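Submission sheet (multi-component)
Chains listed below:
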Amino acid sequence: MYHYVDTTYKNYSLACKPGCSFCCTQRIFATSIEAYYILDILTEETLNQILSIENYLRPKLTHNQILLSYKEGSEPPLEEFSETLNPCPFLTEENFCRIYERRPLMCRLTASVVSCEKGFAELPPFLFQVSTIALQLVENIDLGGLYGNILDLLKFLHQYRKGLVEEVPNYLLNTIDVDELPILPEEKELKKWVGNLYRTPVKENLTFRDLLQKLREDFRNYEALSFLKEIF
Ligand code: SF4
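Outcome: structure written.
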């Protein structure tokens, strides 16, 4: 999924370049499976540093809960907003990403065709549509998982693994599965993008779509804690 999204973005002439970090703040929302992928490469020192960070924004709804609200014709609650956001703890002094290869999907999707130094960002409409679908699919993949600020997810997984917490804190949200993708019949390019992703071979002769269906069948009745007990 990450590779497919990165390849799509490479076809666009984006202003984003190494060392540019305007969007690297502590407002990064992700799924637990993405946090777990990062947790694996963090040192105890970095994890302790993350544990000491407080006061950052948290999502009120998961990406798929927001999609569902719109589908049902209701306005989702406004997300918290702040003019000043602290820098992401994974930024190096030179403004490079310390976890670049494993950075969450939200980081990969945040881009601009104009330099953010001008005070605003501009994402091509097709990439905006791709982003919405990619976030939906990543939440679908993490069935029975959690959604929240990446810092909260890392803190929770780290502490759970050490046996220091037993319950999921209420600011971490349960992921939900929304099968239907928001694609209109006339959006042929987008349909093609999803079709090619679905047909991508992933492992053991399974395509992305086969694996997604298999996940749905195998994990439908799981909830976050029972899942974590098995992986740690
Ligand atoms: S994880 Fe990396 S890319 Fe994402 S906000 Fe932090 S420094 Fe930036």
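Remark: Residues 24, 28, 88, 90-91, 97, 99, 103, 107 surround iron/sulfur cluster (CB under 6 Å).
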